[in-house]
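Standup notes
- HV: blocked on the assembly model, inputs below
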Amino acid sequence: MEIEFRPEGIYIPAIDLWLDPRTPVGHAWLSHAHSDHARGLHATVIATRITAGIYRHRWPLPEGRAQQVLLIDPGQTLEFHGARLTALRAAHILGAAQLLIEYGGERTVYTGDIKLAEPICGWATEIVPCDRLIVESTFALPIYDFLTAAEAQRRIVQFAGESMAAGLVPVFLGYGLGRGQEIVHTLTAAGLPCAVHGAIAGLIPYYEAEGIPFPGWQPYERRKEETRPLVITPGRQDSLAVPAARTRVALVSGWAAVDSARARSGADVLIPYSDHAGFPELLAIVEQSEARRIDIVHGYAEAFARLLRQRGWEAAAAGTAAGEVQV
Amino acid sequence: MKALALCAEAVAAAPGRNEKIARVAAYLETLEDEDLARAVLYLSGRAFPASDRRKLSVGHATLREALVRVTGWDLEMIATCYREVGDTGETVALLVRRHTAGREMSLAQAEALYEQLEQSRRTAQKVELLAEAFRSFDWLQLKYFVKGITGNLRIGLQEKMVEEALAAATGLSAEAVRGANNRSGDLARVARAARGGALASIEAVLFHPLEFMLAKPLDRVGDLADPAEWWVEDKYDGIRAQAHIDAGRVRLFTRGLEETTAAFPEVILELAPLPGPLVLDGEILAWREGRALAFSVLQQRIARKQVSSKTMTAVPVIFLAYDLLLWRGELQFAMPVEERRRRLEGLGLRYLAPQMRLASHSEIEERFLAARGRGNEGLILKRAGSAYESGKRGGNWLKVKRPYGTLDVVVTAAEQGHGRRASVLSDVTFAVRSDDRFLNVGKAYSGLTDEEIRQLTVLFKATTVERYGRVSLLRPEVVLEVAFDGVQRSPRHKSGYALRFPRIVRWRQDKRPEECDTVERVRELYEASLE
């Protein structure tokens, strides 16, 4: 089965299907709801129920426009243009899924964004054997080796407690979809009600609908001088009503694995936890897939491909210009 | 090293200067004397004391080779990782995490290992020692052990702050600790003496650079309350230098406390016969027919390891003395400027900067113009009766430069130029300091030679932390002197100010980023411009 890696996304001509296209197309598989993967109004969207829900929230359908939405939840199968599509769980953000494509006797898996370790919110990754694997490589360097969910949660709660004990307001930097909710869930479940920035707060209902509790969270009010922990998106520190001298800032991100993240993000404390796989997890995903052929997208694709080739795989950097990756 | 590493990590995460010092002091208090001596050195990013002649001679290539041995990654992978991390010690730590037995390294073991590395003559032997260490010790402790080799902890902790922490931990004044470290260049010895209450016994060590006294800018002549209370000298546009002289031996040090002896053999010959032990403060100048040549001429002599006789003839240099730090083996810091001058004149030097007593405000203007007429930068004023305040910019020396003068700034981003300069990083964004952060204050496009741009491009590429298209964000390392026509408010720059029409005057290779000008200085200039 031929696979084309194009600037606007990954395309499979035999079944006329795009994987996470960046511009509007005919038929699109959306691996998860981050806006660099799920974007634009395609004629047909295939996704898990959760991903489709958040995608609709972010890309409402204009009046008079029609769109076909085909839902496949993990384990479910869809016959599509002569291929058999199966969604598989991916640990990344809520609702993320891999896609198994069976066509002409060949099994191809597209991971989307993924990690192998258990996430704080969401489901664990399920790996099935395949012939060809299309995998991401956001953190495919051996310097990236992240905290487990449990350890990250311990540090989040500890940081909040220590900051408040010192009379300071703990501020967490986390992206709008995924990390932000994981931090809010961790804090509130530990009995630390927090104030949450709009971009993160707006998507909390989707998490609550899946049974993830957020007891006592409040929307963040710009003009109010908060004393509770704040959860905001990176780069928003300057707009806080609390003076910077009264805050301590923690960055919860894969990029927090290196000290220079401090200068770049303005954070005091770094908590290296990601919804992408660290290097050892990525290698494990490749090994467990039993695939012979590996295509590598976004990130350190060249370095990772070179390493896999040295170890006997048929591996290539796919070189799709899929843009910045949300972390 | 475990407690030291944890202390260093906490210092990196601590928000301000005082918090950082408090954390270091709390750690130092827990240590017995010998460990205290080791810890203050390692926290200053040194394996050996500053005045110690021993050198580790462990370069990045040696460290990478040891990493290859231990991790199995090839050099290309290690180079890619280093580019992302931007620090060798941290790269080592992150890469050996899954390859080390994780044993604890005591401070004494670290010291023994540094000594073994120094004593190994062959690179292969050094690689072997490092590889063994990488396999054995805990990764976080290795991070700071290796930072001791590369010489910079990158946790926002300058040696001055370690001095303050040591003072706090031993109940002494920061002034006393700083003075003793300045005299001896041996913080380990200072730490031992501090515990024993014997700081005063630490004497000046010749051939180890002392901190220079620095001048505050005088923006408006009218600000000077009593002109008759000041001595005046020309301010020379050369390389500030310190000459250490004894028994026919001479060593020269720059303001950045780097040795520069080898670049100026004729200066060495000239100074060698002087009676030692003696330390002079002065200026290295390109000199012809009784006057200084432009700095750009002198530049041809900078950073040369060896000088040909042809270059020496083309660009003759002299050492022009203007102050006295050590005389007949005695430190002169506490002597008033008049007494230092008297002794300086008694040395019979061939090149001594003329000094005059000021009388009036209008005389400052006249002398300033006369100094400019001689090709010098401006004036230096020294307060009558004042001591030599080593390492301070305290206001007893003032400098009068051209209106608005210049600022020393650090480069934070570089961009590809256009046309002829499309392949080099010629356009720079620069910043001034605010505590341990750097806040942008402008952008400059011109002023450097093609050769300097080429050299800087190599340096910029090696210090790039992130790229956005044509723009590379850099680790702040390169210091430039920029001239400008004014200061204005700017919402676009993080400092809140922008320099008007900035142009690069020169690349200050003698300055470290933490020595660049501050946001406060920019604010002063801005406020002065409103009046």
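- HV (later): unblocked. Chain B has a mean pLDDT of 91. The interface with chain A takes residues 12-15, 71, 73-74, 76-77, 80-81, 84-87, 90-91, 94-95, 97-98, 154, 437, 465-466, 473, 475 of chain B (CB under 8 Å).
- Next: hand off to the docking folks.
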